[in-house]
Each structure stands twice: as C-alpha cells, then as structure tokens.
Amino acid sequence: MELAILNQQNKISVPEELQGMMSEVVKVCWQLEGRRGLPEVSIVLCDNDQIRELNRDYRGIDEPTDVLSFAQEEMGEGEDVVLQAPSDSEKPVLLGDIVISLEKAMEQSEAYGHSLEREVGYLLAHGLLHLLGMDHNSEEERGRMREKEEQILALLQLHR
Half-sphere exposure (CA, 13 Å, Cβ side) for 129? Predict the structure, then answer.
C-alpha cells in the first residue's frame, strides 16, 4: 500500500497516531471491499480556506466542505468507476486524492461530541468509498454508503 499524507495546514497538529489511523482506514476499506492489488492514495490535510477554493473551483460551491475526492480516473456523468483489477495482488492500484479540511473536521467533531480521530476516520472512509465507485445520489445509495462507513469505523473501534 502506498499512502502519502500531505499536511498543508498549520492550525491543527497532526500526531503520528492520527496518521497511523488514516493508514488503517485505507487498509480496512480496501479489504472490506475485497479489492486486489495495493491501493495508492494521497491524502491532503488542509484548512477551510483551502478546501473552499477547491470546492468552488471543482464543484461550483463557494463554501468550505469537509472532504473532497478526486479519482485518478475521472468519469463522466452517469458512468461507473472501473478500477484496474490486477491479477497480481502486489500490483499498485492508483485511486486518486482525498482532501480533508482538518479545521472543518475539528468543528464537526466538537458539534457531534466525538473525537477528531473518529471524524477524520469517517471523512477518509467516505472519500475512499467515493474513489471506489460508491456515491450517495439516492436514498438507497446513501444508506449503503453510510452502512459501509459505519462498518469501517466499527472495525477500527472509532466509536462516537
């Protein structure tokens, strides 16, 4: 597994434990989805100003959000994500980038009454599921995605 964590903000410290948890989220999500190969993903940690710019530029929404996913293989409207499926379990599978606003994650963890670690774990799982082709455009999709997110968090004991 290749995981690059790029901290581009200086408002919230990023201890090694948080980075280790992010690595575990990627592993568990990949295994839970039964994927072959070794996932490669970049995680960018930023603040609200940075993610607001990305949200504006890529989604046309001029406000901060908590997480954005940028798949390596961009698909058109209504197309499914088709990830390469290597026959060799040691071959890399390039997923893309996930951008998380640590500032927004801190705000949400305080609002929901749980740890920053749990909130970042949830946001990362959400972003990874997007990179793996899941979405939440309908109630049914939203329910399936939420169930997977909670399953990942439970396996890592990231409880509310």
Answer: 24
Report the alpha-carbon distance of residue 129 to residue 133 in Å, rounded: 6
DSSP letters, 96-147, are: EEEEEEHHHHHHHHHHHTS-HHHHHHHHHHHHHHHHTT---SSHHHHHHHHH
Over residues 124-156, the pLDDT tens digits come to: 999 999 999 898 989 999 999 999 999 999 999
Amino acid type, 32? L
Are 132 and 25 spatial neighbours (Cβ–Cβ below 8 Å)?
no
- Residue-range domains of the chain with CATH: 2-155 (3.40.390.30)
Q: pLDDT digit string (tens) for 51-74?
A: 999 999 999 999 999 999 999 865
What is the chain's Cα-based Rg? 15
What are φ and ψ of residue 125, in 5° steps?
-60, -45
Of 26, 20, 30, nearest to 117 by C-alpha is 20
The structure tokens 């989805």 sit at 33
